[in-house]
Each structure stands twice: as C-alpha cells, then as structure tokens.
Give the backbone structure.
Amino acid sequence: MKSSMLDDTDRALIHALQIDARAPFSRIGAVLGVSTQTVARRYQRLRAESGLRVVGLPDPDRTGLTQWLVRLSAQPATARTLARSLARRPDTSWVKLTSGGTEIVTIAHTPSHEQSAMLLHDIPRTASVTSVSAHFILHTYLGGPTAWRGRVAALTEEQQEALRPPESAADETPLTAADHALIAALRHDGRASIADLAAAAGPAPATAARRLADLRARGALFFDVEISAALYGVTTQAFLWMAVAPADLDEVATTLATHEEFAVVVATTGPTNLAAQALCPDPAALHHYLTHRLGALRAIHTVHTAPVLEIVKAVGPLTA
C-alpha cells in the first residue's frame, strides 16, 4: 500500500475504529461486508506502512486536567531539536513546527490543581527560545472525542449505528490510581488486550475489563485514531489564531465547528481568543476558504495564519 492513497476499505476501517476503537475485527468485518481476515490484514498493513495508531485518551473535564495551547518562537537552527525535546515529554501532545520552522505549537496538559503546566516553567531555561505565549483552553468546540469530518465520512448511518458500543451505567466514584494507569497504558495502544492492560495497570483482568467499561461509560476515556491527513489528500495544514468579540465568540466558534475544513476549534485566553486547525487539499483551497467562507464572518476581527510544516508528535506518546 502506498502512503499516498487509501481505498474504500481502508477508509471504512478507519471510520469504524473511530466509532469503536476496540471493536473486534469480526464485528467490523460483518458491518463492512468483508472477512475478519481482511480487516486484520488491512489493520496490520495500515499500522506498518501508514502509521495508523489507536490511542486511548483522558477527557480533561472528567479526569482533572487542564490544557494549554503553547506557542514558542525559536531560532531556526534549534527549533526542530527543541520540538523533538518537547515531544518526548509525557505532558505534551500535538507538537508541530509552523511559520517557516521558527515557531512551535503544542498542547500541554496539567492537573487542574496546578496553576500552570510544568512545561511553562521549563521553557525559559532554553536559550534558543525567543518568545513564549500560553493560551489556556477554555472550551473545545471541535476536536477531542469529535473527529475531523474528513476521516469519518466512509460509512452509512446504518453501519455507524451497528458499530456504536452499547451504552451502560457509569460508576461516578473518583478515579483511582489504577484507573489512571489504565488510561496511560491505553495511550500507547488503544487496542491492547485486557491481559496486557491488567499487567500494565495492576488489577486482575476481570477488574481491568470492568474499569475500562466504566471509564468509557462515564466519558472519562475516549479513543482517537492517528493517521496522516495526507492520506486523505490534505497537503496544506494551518493554525488560525482569531480575535472575536466575546459576545460573538460562541456563535462564531459553533459555526466554524461545522466547517469541514477544520479539525480543531477551541476558545482560549489571550489577545487571540479563538484557535483552529485547518486541513485543506492545497494552498489555493486554504486561500479560497480564508477569503470566502471565513471572510464572510464579520465578527472575526483579525486572523493570523501559520502554516504547519511538520507534525513532530501527534496525540499519542512517541514510540521508539
């Protein structure tokens, strides 16, 4: 399989994993109308050749985490090295080089009881950093459990309904250390077996299975699928930093969250209070979007566009 193309079965499999990341291959095959062996073979090939990875992630609002969108400007000669250093940290995700390779954008995660991310204390010690701005994420309109629409357009409504996991009652007791260990293991492999999860997190397999079901039921845990947007024909990605009057912010952000060009839309603190990530087929498509659709929203006072040059780290931890 070449990295430049996904066929219909590949797209359907990825969409299925986005709906239920831990669905057995037999159930996915039945819904897609292909054999279990075909699903397993496609999954392994996508993992080996196209970087597919399923990851389990904590929902910040339900697991006591806050998120900071951090922008760092660095000297060109050191920016990539600094980005890789940030990517190795367990408290970062989505480390990207933007703006000609002189700016790094990342999300830092920190426990809610801490005033700021440890990352913010460590950065000033790096001489190559020329500026830092940290934007507290106040609300997520698109992103997190809600996937980019370009990745979830392969299945019919009937197929999607057949794949959705059944709802179950949730235990609202506080999360335990074993629960956090379980989530940490799932960040490395969202499809890890119950036996492997039990070995990593400590409880017996039956307890691990029960806690996993509860974490999903209460919304403390969700799953995402990592795979390059380039496989969907995206050649141009950009961050948009927008300033919107507070009275118009909710309406504008809700509207942007319906636009198929966006994978992320979040409200933040700072002089630009709305941030978004755009995925477009080419620069011309991004220009058309900015000048026509986005430009039509008069409540947006300013827009700063920063092209993404390299994704150093996606949502899951780096692998060896």
